[in-house]
């Protein structure tokens, strides 16, 4: 029997990278172990998330399925929504598309600047049981972690926000002063988070400018996380640390966040990039590059 070869695209949003499959015509079902093997950076293609574009049962532009590098399926990915939004807009020649996700319908539209896309990520959920947390907290701006894995009082009082997925934000003096690779896994799996959580360290360094490092649930350290950027922007404004429009500076670059006053929606704007085209033999999991990606942007062209 002939082996099955499938084309894919490798993309990223500020370094948060994805393998993207088009499964609208031909479904693609991969097991957790296969996804984790493909996501492995040493022996596989290597990615933070695997994104499967499927037909929407609601009749919008597409459904986007998201798997973390460890093979677990999750509901939200901000950077991938911008990347898939760009692909669908280019394909249809439109400047606004609607993407169905497990977390709801999201609208993506062309932002000013080449390859820059804005996504309306909807309304953040802020109640303790919406995060979700394992016990009740009236105020989610700073919850008390009773069992702290780390001997540092600052790391016991995160703000928590759900942006379609759970986020905990630890306000620190300097994000560089912490070994996030060591503390990230302990905080991600803290018993207060029944579904685990994405962990951000954040500090405001100038007016409405926030430096952030993220340990992603099911992935690890990442160059950028769109939903974390949204969650940090919301947590900062809620706390009066910033206004409602912020720039979140991640290791991979800046993301613009607006927590819109009129309707409480969070708008996220940032760059997208096609790295290369590839194809994979699904029987042997051997893969190769088949085409080039975006040409580098001129210095100063990004916005
Ligand atoms: N990289 C993403 C978030 C991906 C999902 C996350 N790791 C989770 O488990 O919730 C983003 O850009 O938002």
TrEMBL record:
It is found in: Cytoplasm. Signal peptide: none annotated. It holds the Pfam family DAP_epimerase. The keyword Amino-acid biosynthesis applies. InterPro entries: DAP_epimerase_AS, DAP_epimerase_DapF. The record marks 167, 216 as: Could be important to modulate the pK values of the two catalytic cysteine residues. The keyword DNA repair does not apply. Pathway: Amino-acid biosynthesis; L-lysine biosynthesis via DAP pathway; DL-2,6-diaminopimelate from LL-2,6-diaminopimelate: step 1/1. Keywords: Amino-acid biosynthesis, Cytoplasm, Isomerase, Lysine biosynthesis. The active site is at residues 77, 225. Catalyzes the stereoinversion of LL-2,6-diaminopimelate (L,L-DAP) to meso-diaminopimelate (meso-DAP), a precursor of L-lysine and an essential component of the bacterial peptidoglycan. This is Diaminopimelate epimerase. The lineage of its organism: Bacteria, Pseudomonadati, Pseudomonadota, Alphaproteobacteria, Hyphomicrobiales. The gene is dapF.
């Amino acid at each position: 029997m002939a082996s099955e070869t499938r084309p894919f695209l490798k993309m990223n949003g500020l370094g948060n990278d994805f393998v993207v499959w088009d499964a609208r015509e031909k479904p693609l079902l991969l097991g957790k172990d296969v996804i984790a093997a493909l996501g492995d950076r040493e022996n596989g293609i290597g990615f933070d998330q695997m994104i499967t574009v499927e037909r929407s049962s609601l009749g919008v532009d597409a459904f986007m399925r998201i798997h973390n590098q460890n093979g677990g399926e999750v509901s939200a990915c901000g950077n991938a929504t911008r990347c898939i939004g760009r692909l669908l807009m280019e394909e249809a020649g439109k400047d606004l598309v609607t993407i169905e996700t497990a977390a709801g319908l999201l609208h993506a539209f062309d932002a000013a600047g080449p390859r820059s896309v804005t996504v309306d990520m909807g309304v953040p959920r802020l109640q303790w049981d919406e995060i979700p947390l394992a016990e009740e907290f009236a105020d989610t701006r700073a919850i008390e972690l009773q069992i702290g894995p780390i001997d540092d009082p600052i790391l016991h009082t995160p703000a928590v926000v759900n942006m379609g997925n759970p986020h905990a934000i630890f306000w620190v003096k300097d994000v560089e002063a912490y070994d996030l690779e060591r503390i990230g896994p302990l905080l991600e799996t803290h018993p207060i988070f029944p579904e685990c959580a994405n962990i951000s360290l954040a500090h405001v360094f100038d007016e409405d400018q926030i430096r952030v490092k993220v340990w992603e649930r099911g992935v690890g350290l990442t160059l950028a996380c769109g939903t974390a950027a949204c969650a940090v922007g919301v947590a900062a404004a809620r706390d009066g640390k910033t206004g409602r429009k912020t720039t979140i500076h991640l290791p991979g670059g800046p993301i613009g966040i607006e927590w819109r006053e009129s309707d409480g929606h969070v708008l996220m704007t940032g760059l997208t990039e096609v790295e290369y085209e590839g194809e994979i033999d699904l029987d042997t999991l051997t893969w190769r590059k088949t085409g080039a990606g975006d040409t580098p942007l001129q210095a100063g062209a990004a916005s």
